[in-house]
Amino acid sequence: MTATAAPDASLGDTARTRPVREVMRHGVVLCDADVSVRDVARTMRDHRIGAVLAVDISSEVIGLIDESSLVRGWSEPDRTTAAEIADVDPLIVDPGDAVGDVARRMLDRGLTRALVAPPPPTEESGRWSEWKERGLPLGMIAVADILGRLDELGAAVRGGSAAPPLGARRVPPAAIAATVIATLLLLGLMLFLVTHGHPQTTTPGCSNPTQGGC
Amino acid sequence: MPVSTTTVAEAMRPRLPSCTLRTPVMEVARKMQEDGVAHVVVASAGSDLIAGSISELDLLRAVIEGKTEAMASDVMSLAAPATIAAKEPLAVAVKRMRDEGIAFYVVVDGTPARPVGLLSHTELAAYLARG
Q: Chain A to chain B, count of Cβ pairs less than 8 Å apart?
């Protein structure tokens, strides 16, 4: 048996690689495959969650239902069942997958959510048909979860090539030139004053009223 | 309550989440989070003119590409968002959504038509749960 959880090489150093398990919402809400679409909508509302898993009577997972799936049962929401609208082929990721890698897979498939489940014992898949090979789903990760924690995850999600650090600002050459010229002018002025100026420069008018010399 | 007789106005979010062309990407992400929406409309400052829209996936793409310092205009989808009249039957809106793969509508009302709200899968799910 080969070792699982190969590190994602495309994501640069490990400090910027965060596994999905550290970011995902743990736990899933289940619904009976036979309940109505309206009941699924109520379950989502009551749990304040965007997606539920439909399971049959033997706890076999039928598929994933999110807000967009509900539209499929719109015409008869009290008659259409959860099983009829469930997405049987959602994106499934491993808890050890890098969050940046999962972000890219969601973007590629145009999905805003992925189900997190233990990896199958054989090789990687991500296909729902291999659901039985995986253990029970552990949770979900949504694009909104990532967007809500950008301060913390931004670096982990950013593409493979290391972006230049934002803090290191380069001083433009024009600014350097201007500083040099200003310094030279100042030095010239000081030199002129030392060689030609009076020891004590007097200005017309009163420069120090407290001494009353005006 | 028969779903077919209700109008778009009854299910919509009665406020259109929007930002300007120059709103920073990170602020758009924050706004989405706070408002609990998946789409934000991008409008020219101080006008109803819609220049484009930004979805969660548009923002995710921006983050992946390292464009977190960019402005809304750099990451928005230029396609004009689908619009629907507030008086339209909800069933018509949902059917068009399914047939044309529309993710959300800008709901408009009055003459000349002005944007008055948003209708997406989120609002439809909430409406379904109320019924």
A: 95
DSSP character at residue B106: E
Burial of A45 (0-12, 13-18, 19+ CB in 10 A): middle
Q: Is A185 on the interface with B (CB under 8 A)?
A: no
For B62, phi then psi, to 5°, come to -60, -40
Q: Do B26 and A150 touch (CB under 8 A)?
A: yes
Residue A194: inside a domain, yes or no?
no
Mutating which of B55, B128, B130 best tests the A interface, going by the most A Cβ atoms within 10 A? B128
CATH code of the domain containing A62: 3.10.580.10
The answer to whether residue A197 sits within a structural domain is no
Q: pLDDT tens digit string along B65-100?
A: 999 899 999 999 999 999 999 999 999 999 999 999
Q: For residue A46, what is the nearest residue in chain B, using CA coordinates?
A: B129
The Cα–Cα gap between A41 and A53 comes to 12
Domain hosting A52: range is: 7-158
The answer to the question of residue A138 being in a domain is yes
Overall number of domains in chain A: 1
List, for chain A, all residue ranges whose pLDDT scores fall below the cut of 70. 1-16, 122-133, 160-176, 197-214
CB contact under 8 Å between B124 and A163, yes or no, is: no
Dump pLDDT digits (tens) for A103-139. 999 999 999 999 999 887 765 555 555 566 677 899 9
A38 touches chain B (CB under 8 A): yes
pTM exceeding the 0.80 threshold for the entire prediction: no
Q: Which residues contact A108 (CB under 8 A, 6 or more apart)?
A: none
Nearest residue in A to B97, CA atom: A71
ipTM metric = 0.90
